[in-house]
Amino acid sequence: MAEYQPITLRDPSSSVTATYVPAAGMICTSLAADGVEYLGQRRGVEAYITSGKTMGIPILYPWANRLSATKYPIDGAVVTLTPGVGGVRTDEHGVPIHGVLGAYAGWVVTERSDHRLVADLDWGGTPRLLAAFPFPHVLTMTVTLADRALTVETTVAPSSAAPVPLCYGYHPYLQIPGVARAQWQLQTPAMRHLQVDSWGIPTGGTQEWAGGDQPLGDTELDHGFDQVDEGAVFVLSGGDRRVEVTFGQGYSGAQLFAPAADDLVAIEPMTAPTDALRRGNYRMAAPGEPETSRFSIKVG
Predict the structure, then answer these.
(1) Selection from 283, 282, 275 nearest residue 98 by Cα
(2) Are strands 291-299 and 149-158 parallel, antiparallel or unpaired?
């Protein structure tokens, strides 16, 4: 693990810290206040590196969550994904999940200070990545820690004449330390719930989700949404602690994940719904017009 050196950011105005490991896919492994951890550690960063078992805050790129098959269309052609090759991982049903950047070592840190970190990934210069997603571009992640909030900005800048589909997301595993899961409260905004089949793939059916504040209790969640308003706020709280996730820009989709077997809730910002790369319901970054998305996580 020596080559996977962590970088810890420190909030200049509080005790909050955030730790990233650039060589392990620019994953955030810790978000803590006064030494108390707010990110679900699950099996830890070593399992993420060796077997892709997610934890902390991983990026899901170039698609978030599942695709309904191992092929997707683009400009009259078809891209074929091969499970186990080029970073393609599959779920229990054999369909691709969470993109190809799990623990990817090719990020280059371009800026670093006590509370800010910037890293680039040159997609166009990497044949392995182009095989799965044939759109040359530079991907930039900028993370800033200030005022008890971690802000993550992601910029997609096309580096050829081809526009780049925006179907990515993040998977923040959140927890309320020192408080039993049954006592957590989850507050969500109004949005649209996407009905799914037994594989977790949207069926096309929808229903309104009124949002509001409710106890988590023993509720299990694995729900996808679209029509998330810019600036929407999600809150996970318990006792005198809380975590606020704000979808600041570019994230019109979301996934809520709360498994029965883990004391955590994932509040996932997504630029497009699950399976968008196959269905074409996504925005694109045009040549010469980089697209930036932003979300933030504030701990209290």
Answers:
(1) 275
(2) antiparallel
Cis-peptide, bond into residue 259, ω within 30° of zero: no
Q: Which amino acid type is present at position 214? A: Q
Start-to-end Cα distance in the chain: 32
Q: What is the pLDDT of residues 172-214, one digit of tens each?
A: 999 999 999 999 999 999 999 999 999 999 999 999 999 999 9
| Residues in contact with 4: Cβ distance below 8 Å, sequence separation at least 6, in sequence order | 21, 23, 24, 45, 49
- Where in the chain are the domains? 7-299
Asked if residues 296 and 248 have their Cβ atoms less than 8 Å apart, the reply is yes
Per residue in 85-124, pLDDT (tens digit) is: 999 999 999 999 999 999 999 999 999 999 999 999 999 9
| Partner residues linked to 296 by β-bridges | 151, 246
Contact by Cβ (8 Å): 99, 139: no
In contact, 103 and 48? CB cutoff 8 Å? yes
Q: Could you tell me if residue 287 is left (phi over 0), alpha (psi between -120 and 50 degrees) or otherwise beta?
A: beta
Residue 125 half-sphere exposure toward CB, CA atoms < 13 A: 8
User: What phi, psi does 129 have (nearest 5°)?
Assistant: -75, -40
Q: What are phi and psi of 192, to 5 degrees?
A: -115, 125
- Residue 116 CA neighbour count, 13 Å, CB half: 6
**Which residues neighbour 53 within 8 Å (Cβ) at sequence distance 6 or greater?**
42, 43, 47
**Whole-number Cα distances in Å, 200 to 7, 16, 187, 195, 261:** 35, 35, 23, 9, 18
CATH number for the region 7-299 comes to 2.70.98.10
The single-letter DSSP state of residue 182 is G
- The DSSP code for 228 is P
